[in-house]
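Q: What would this chain look like folded?
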Amino acid sequence: MIVWINGTFGAGKSSTARELVDLIPNSTLYDPEVTGGGLRRLLPAKRLAEVEDYQDLPIWRRLVVDTAAALLAEVGGVLVVPMTLLRQEYRDEIFGGLAARRIDVRHVLLAPEETILRARIDGRSEYGDPEVDARVREWCHQHLPPYRAALDWLAADAYTLDTSELTAAEAARAVADAVLAGQVAPCGIVQTPEPTGETLAAGVLLFDEQDRFLLVDPTYKPGWEFPGGVVEPGEPPARAGMREVAEEIGLELDAVPRLLLVDWERPEPPGYGGLRLLFDGGTLRAADTARLHLPGAELRGWRFVTEEEAAELLPPVRYRRLRWALRARERGTVLNLEAGVPVGRPLTAGPQP
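A: My prediction, written as structure tokens:
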């Protein structure tokens, strides 16, 4: 189990976490700042200059998951992790990676009142160098607006503790009591097992009466996605797409969807790649759309979008796949792609035997 102590910079996460490991039996402290510090020594200066925060580095987010899992495998028990996460997609990626390893995350938010928080930031002096301390205080103040913007999803996701009147020791005691009493529930991230080899996945494009198509927003990985998922052993791919549509958005498709394309996805660590199929699930009428519902643990939202709007929501590899799927639908063909690029001759759709 992981107890993740979240909060904006200056909220007292590190000091609370240090106190907490003495209150929760068999617990160990892991500070992802150490991982960020290591990357400063490992990555080329040019790559580091491309981001403002090491959290924006995909390698940092992967290493946080891998390091936490390795620590728990080594020492067992409970891992206490003090780390600010203000971007929901980063929370999804990290917590989803931990869930895939069957690791429960208990998410705690330290939330002092803002005037008290600002006073605490202004009083910080921990490096013994006035210039460094001033830069740290400025950094903390700069992150207050993003913190306020994130409060809606943070408050809905985490066990929130008002620490306005609490010392670090008192906050740690309150967190420990809540965790040990079961008041801090595991985060509702779907536990999708990590693949151990290439996978076969089936996605389904569903259209509305304006010819926009449906995208869903998974809680367990960054970026939007088409309804669909991994094909189970012995399962026909088109039927797998139908099953996933029913599980994800509550709709039973009347007919087996038509294949639009097959795309071979190149293995790129930590992913294994494999075959990705996209099917045309047809047009949903207004009555169908009214019946859409989402499982809270797996999907956060859905929306119908245009091709242009999808460019802002889909990761590049999925957007390339989408564009070719739409061209295949327009032309009544089936396309064979390798890493997002068509190869061979398209198959013309015709009458079924």
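The CA atoms of residues 66 and 198 lie 20 Å apart.
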